[in-house]
Amino acid sequence: MATSRRGLLIGGAVVALGTIGYLNAPHARPHKPRKAGAVDYAGAQWVAASSANWRMADRPDDYAVDRVVIHVVQGSFDSALKTFEDPENEAAAHYVVRKDGHIAQTVREMDVAFHSGNRKYNERSVGIEHEGFVEEASSFTAAMYASSARLTAAICARYRISVDRTHIIGHVEVPGTDHTDPGPHWDWPRYISLVGAAGRA
Fold it and tell me: Hey, how many other C-beta atoms are within 10 angstroms of the C-beta on 25?
């Protein structure tokens, strides 16, 4: 995944600048305690994003979480993790899903990841990246769909998010975006059905 694309995709610099007042606010209360390496989704691999690529928060206490945003990396699983570890990119999603279904978490769900290019949507959503390319249908494997759907179902249960296309959206649907992921080959009916089934299970 090219750094230039990711910079455009997220608009992280704009988001970061917009948070300076919050971070320096004298009335800002202490944040919830963090445990190094802790994950919000059992079985996920912890790969910490650079602190430049997300903002500490106490969601859902300070920001209600009511969306899951689906992304496609335009590259490999490893390239996504390297991008999120690089402070110069000012970009990260909460999770990255590999083609074989393996999941890495890079930002805690309580915190605001710079993933959508829209500050309000960053504050209200959990972002999930998927290995692959929007123009390649083969990117989206059965293992990836199933694993990602279980993750999204767990997020929806945790925050009482409705399992529908109003609340589970693609990056392309975030207001102000100029990007197309997850693209025309992402099978939304299949995915929403899988999320619903995982939630019921």
Answer: 9
* Measured distance CA(72)–CA(115) in Å, rounded: 11
DSSP state of 74: S
Burial grade of 171 (CB within 10 A; 0-12, 13-18, 19 or more) = buried
Place of tokens 């305690």: 33
What are the tens digits of pLDDT across the range 91-132?
Answer: 999 999 999 999 999 999 999 999 999 999 999 999 999 999
Q: Judge contact between 64 and 125, C-beta under 8 A.
A: no
Q: How far apart are CA 5 and CA 194, in angstroms?
A: 30
119 vs 122: CA distance, rounded Å: 5
Amino acid type, 25: A
Closest CA to 107 of 117, 115, 119, 99: 115
pLDDT digits (tens, 9 = 90+) for 136-150: 999 999 999 999 999
Identify the three-state secondary structure at position 161: coil
Neighbours of 162 (CB within 10 A): 10
The CA distance from 154 to 50, in Å, is 25
